Amino acid sequence: MKRKMGYGLIAVMLLLSACSSNGGGGEATGSATPSGSEASAPSESGSPAATGGTQDPLGKYETPIEVTTARSLGSTVTFVEGESLDNNVWYRGYQEDLGIVLKNEWTVPEGQYGQKMNVSIASGNIPDIVTVDLTQLQKLIESDMIMDLTDVFEQYASELTKTTLSMDGGVGWTAATFGGKKMALPSTASVIDGTQMIWIREDWLKKVGMDAPKTIDDVWSVAEAFVKQKPGGQAKTYGLGLGKDIYSGYGGIGGLAYGLKAYPKAWVAGADGKLAYGSVQPEMKEALAKLQEMFKAGLIDPEFGVYDANKVNELITSGQIGMFYGQHWNAFWPLPDGFKNDPEANWMPYPIVSADGSSASSLAGNGAVFFYAVKKGAKNPEALVKLLNYSLEKQYGPNGRDKRFFNNEDTNMNLYAYAAVTAQDPLQNINIYRGVKQALESKSDAGLSFDAKDNYESINKYLAGDEAFWGSYKWSGPEGALSVEDAYDNNGQVTLNGFLGAPTETMLKKGSTLDTLELETFTKIILNAASIDTFDTFVANWNKLGGEEITNEVNEWAASK
Questions:
Q1: Where is this region: Disordered (predicted)?
Q2: Spatial distance between the Cα atoms of 425 and 8, rounded to a whole number of angstroms
Q3: Which is deepest, 48, 178, 259, 264, by most CB within 10 Å?
Q4: What pairing do the DSSP bridges indicate for beta strands 100-109 and 65-73?
Q5: pLDDT greater than 80 at residue 33
Q6: What letters, b where the CB count within 10 A reaches 16 and e where it falls short, cover 473-505?
Q7: How, if at all, do strands 362-363 and 494-495 pair?
């Protein structure tokens, strides 16, 4: 499924608030809804509770309603003295501005949230609104425990909320909609931030007298030149960085595979128009053959099969690797460490390339990984929508970011982690790049958003000689990682995963076995420990061991959308 991304569009993004803010990503997660124990539905701004028509998206309840929520708390989340997850700037804002009193029904460390929520679902005792993943959402629907939010969303969502949740082609809604009904609100994130790019030592390119690659064969030639000429002066030098997690966004095989129109671990349109698993398509065999050839030629470290991300990081930052497929956040990790070790290490990001030099299309992210659902019988389900309206308004509203609700400049605390219901503008990072580019050209920060201005200032500090901002320059600078994403967006170089549903029945039963078979087979092929024709045997076994059933289930899901 290849779509043009012009319809609108953090894990190291979280290192800078300017990169992204995700209320559930390693910080504090949760959800909030009006308590189902309320005797009646209070009025907002003197008007009856929703019975039809359009309501005030940010209207305040005249009589405050009590709202329960379940939260998780990341180990890095801190509070000023006297405050907590029960009492903070966001919770006070909900009460003062919306008339919604949030009560944390339970809180757990972030690593325990999923298990605790599973127990709550199994017992039939959930908070009024829950933050769940797709599997949990499917269970809630099957158990008839949550409400259809279609009408409530239409009546109470602000235009900003409606626009934000519909960006990226509405992939969040695709996952959250069942039988034509909006059964949850997606916590949107950017799909294009999940795309791949090639990071290359530009200083090495100059030393070997070559340009950045424009084809897959060029990638081979550059890697070969790096290995033979050793421009970093290291006895062990490899052209292409790779780790044992071959599907990782950093040091994986995805970017090269995409250039050959192979999409491992994704569901894409097959020759018959139906969804097909990318890892078992003929294009994947071609990609594995190319990687095996590169390994045999000494362009890939022979020990990559035991390297975790930290080891790949060590090799890259010590000057032993000159090129790898990665993502935009590599500008902040691990590349600044390489620059500290060697100030000449000029890493530059480039778009992935194809076999023939035509534009290649990178697989993107899924857009939303968790969702907000309302317990069936809740008196005021619209409160969920209001909470999301409030969050988006404070971040992206016409008055710009409300600084009170984000980073505390005195303590450097991430206040956004306290928010109970959140979503990201999928175009947030690209818009930062576009704003910075315009400001650098005009030499003026007039009209910049908070994030764009923050990045513009960081880049100017780097240009003035402050190397502490090298990562910012490589991220949102004129030729930074976001310039690649911007090109992808403008040129339609993005392929979306065609399956956005919860794991199917057979996936749950046999998916782990199939995943292990795939990883072991592909790794052996790349390591030249198995013939490329082993791929054909793998495909047959994959289908026989459950893949064929999964394919049918995936297409049944697609037909229901």
A1: 23-60
A2: 9
A3: 259
A4: parallel
A5: no
A6: bbbbbeebbbbbbbebbeeebbbbbbbbbbbbe
A7: parallel
Separation of CA 488 from chain center: 16
pLDDT at 14: 33
> Using CB atoms within 10 A of its CB, is residue 253 exposed (0-12), middle (13-18) or buried (19+)?
buried
- Check: CATH 3.40.190.10 for 196-363? yes
34 pLDDT more than 60:
no
How far is residue 375's CA from residue 378's CA, in Å, rounded to a whole number?
6
In a 13 Å sphere around the CA of 553, the CA atoms on its Cβ side amount to 17
**What confidence tens digit (pLDDT) does each residue in 516-554 have?**
999 999 999 999 999 999 999 999 999 999 999 999 999
Q: What is the pTM of this model?
A: 0.90
Q: How far apart are CA 519 and CA 245, in angstroms?
A: 9
Distances in Å between the alpha carbon of 5 and those of 22, 325, 369? 22, 21, 19
Contacts of 516 (CB under 8 A, 6+ apart): none
- What CATH superfamily is the domain 15-192+367-418? Periplasmic binding protein-like II (3.40.190.10)
* Number of helices (H), then strands (E), in the chain: 20, 17
Quickly count: other Cβ atoms within 10 Å of residue 37's Cβ: 11
Name the helix (H) or strand (E) containing 454: helix 450-463
Which conformational region is residue 448 in: left (phi greater than 0), alpha (psi within -120 to 50 degrees), or beta? beta
Give how far Cα 382 sits from Cα of 161, 395, 479, 513, Å: 13, 20, 44, 42
Is there a contact between 549 and 509 (Cβ–Cβ < 8 Å)?
no
Q: What's phi and psi for 375, nearest 5 deg? A: -60, 135
Q: What is the DSSP letter of 543?
A: I
For 50, the token pair is 């929703």
> Using 50, 70 and 90 to split pLDDT, how confident is the model at 219?
very high
Q: What is the pLDDT of residue 4?
A: 37
Name the pairing type of β-strands 323-326 and 28-34. Answer: unpaired
Per-residue pLDDT of 269-305, as tens digits, reads 999 999 999 999 999 999 999 999 999 999 999 999 9
Q: Residue 199 has what DSSP assignment?
A: E
Q: Which two tokens stand for residue 154?
A: 């239409």
**Whether the domain at 15-192+367-418 and the domain at 196-363 fall into the same CATH topology:** yes
What strands, in cross-sheet order, belong to the sheet with 100-109? 28-34, 65-73, 100-109
Distance (Å, rounded) from C-alpha 186 to C-alpha 147?
15
- Read off the pLDDT of residues 441-499 as tens digits, 9 standing for 90 and up: 999 999 999 999 999 999 999 999 999 999 999 999 999 999 999 999 999 999 999 99
What ranges do the domains of the chain cover? 15-192+367-418, 196-363, 428-495
